[in-house]
Amino acid sequence: MRHASAYELTARLLRLHNGGARHRIFAANGFDDALCTASANGYTDLLAVLPGCFISDLSAMIAFIGDGAASERHVYADGGDSPILAYVNLVRWRRQGEPPFGSLTEEPFPSSVTDGLLYADPDDPCAYYLALTQLQEMALAWRDQVWTVNYEELSCSVQPPGPVRLFIGVASGLKPNALLDASGWTPRTQVLYVDSSSATLAFRRWLVEEWNGDDYRSAIERWRRLQGRTTLVSEPVLERIQAMEAHFGGRRALRKHWGHYRRLKHSYWNTSLLGDQETVLAALRQSAGPRLVWCSNVFHSLYTHVFQDEMQSEALFDHWMNELAMIPGTFVVGTDAYGGDITQLIRA
Question: From CA 110, how far away is CA 74, in angstroms rounded?
């Protein structure tokens, strides 16, 4: 892989966290220029990031901003005197007469925000290489973990032209089951899981073969015991489990659904749409429609943005959608290379 510069990689990770219309990414010549640009565009908040400041998880920052924090400005200096990351509440800044950045009262970010940051001086190749290596390790760990729950909503306006004959998707959580329920399926529907995480595929295969559909939390804990891991389910995971079970109408309804679903023919492929699209496309071409494909956030993830530049991820996504366009009767659900919703039906 071509090593990205600190400037390029900072922009990639910011794109990863760009939530669409609510967030805009722009370049500026320093903090004061960023303040003026953000104010001129009518923004309410400014998060200014110097190149080399890598945010691997922006959820804590978003929560911090959403709580209405900041009396004036919050900064993170990573041990130095000059800030490399700053947040300014622009509503309060305007009320103060739009003073220069340097004159604002300074407050530190809470550790909940700074724990997810890495910094490497763009002019220090050694420091940057170490940070890049750490980011790559984080991205690989992210990809390879067991994805037992879905952090995206299970509901989706799936409207294929009739019950699907083939479902292809990643193996995480219960979103595949929600999509099948929404689209309609028959006892002859085939399910093909395509996932780069062998651990997630193993968990899904075990669920299909061993779990009766009752009490998803207990299933996760049992699986963890079999793997010799800590069995406790964290509070955020428990909340997602409860939300997923509620989506199906409760535990009893989920058990009924699962009893029918697990009888379907299942296949498990340990590969990725980033590296082996042709094999998956061949399976789609060989199947009669309707088909349902869930690619989730494969083209817009921590792994994607750490290991691929914008042109590479765009090219992979464009190739995928162009090939799907020649397979009518296919309904695709997921996100593009920028996190935008691509849910659509490929028509004849």
Answer: 9
Cα(62)–Cα(298) distance, integer angstroms: 22
Q: Is 187 helix (H, G, I), strand (E, B) or coil?
A: strand
Pairwise CA distance, residues 170 & 270, whole Å = 10
What is the residue whose two structure tokens read 């920052």? 61
Q: What is the pLDDT of residues 53-112, one digit of tens each?
A: 887 666 677 777 766 555 556 776 665 677 888 888 888 888 888 989 888 877 888 887
Pairwise CA distance, residues 345 & 325, whole Å? 9
Q: Running DSSP on this structure, what letter comes out for residue 21?
A: T
Cβ neighbours of residue 77 closer than 8 Å, sequence gap 6 or more: 83, 84
- Do the beta carbons of residue 167 and residue 192 sit within 8 Å? yes
- Give CA–CA dist 323/202, Å, rounded: 29
Q: Which contiguous run of DSSP H or E holds residue 265? A: strand 265-269
Residue 93: partners with Cβ closer than 8 Å, 6 or more residues away: 35, 39, 72, 99, 104
The per-residue pLDDT for range 163-211, each reduced to its tens digit, is 999 999 999 999 999 999 988 999 999 999 999 999 999 999 999 999 9
**Cβ neighbours for 333, distance < 8 A, ≥ 6 positions apart:** 156, 158, 179, 292, 293, 294, 295, 342, 343
* Nearest Cα residue to 95 out of 59, 125, 71: 71
Tokens of 280: 């998956």
- Pull the structure tokens for residue 57: 């998880």
